[in-house]
Amino acid sequence: MTEPASNLPLLLAGAKRWFDDALTASMRAAGEQPLTSAQGQVFAFLDPEGTTVAELARRLGVTRQTAHQAVHGLLALGLLEQVPDPASARNRLIRITAEGARVHHRAQATLTVIEGALADRIGKEAAAALRHALTLPRGEPPVVEAP
After folding, report:
1. Residue 146 confidence (pLDDT)
2. Which of 21, 54, 106, 142: CA 20 to 30 A from 96?
3. CATH topology classification for 19-129
4. Distance CA 58, CA 112 (A)
5. Model pLDDT for residues 44-81, shown as the tens digit of each residue
């Protein structure tokens, strides 16, 4: 029996998992403490001056509790720090530490090499086309009726 082709969201999730696994294994091989995918995503959404956990949760598309758990793991590793929010006495800002910046830069450089490995495997043109397609504007998510 032939299996139906995976839908695009499953294919994209599989591709992301491939990158996550390659990054985790590469960072571990380099002697770095491996981070979860959620922890790694936190770095992409932090403002240089700091970001509240509530804003991080919104940007990540997760609950505050989930964002809080990711942040606390990174605080414990010394990759993030909490500082008072000058705009609000009630809030605290989450910022990257010097060690966090070092690890983040290493991860970004590693991802560049992993992208190169993917381009070697699927072809440079296919990799460039994939990157281009994923950067095109998609607009608001559509609301559709199934046939």
Report:
1. 86
2. 21
3. Arc Repressor Mutant, subunit A (1.10.10)
4. 27
5. 999 999 999 999 999 999 999 999 999 999 999 999 99
CB 43 within 8 A of CB 104: yes
Domain-wise residue ranges, the chain: 19-129
Look up residue 49 and give its amino acid.
E
103 contacts 59 by C-beta, under 8 angstroms? no
Read off the pLDDT of residues 105-124 as tens digits, 9 standing for 90 and up: 999 999 999 999 999 999 99
Query: What amino acid occupies position 74?
Result: L
- 26-30 contacts: CB < 8 A, separation 24 or more? 26/110, 26/113, 26/114, 27/106, 27/107, 27/110, 30/106, 30/110
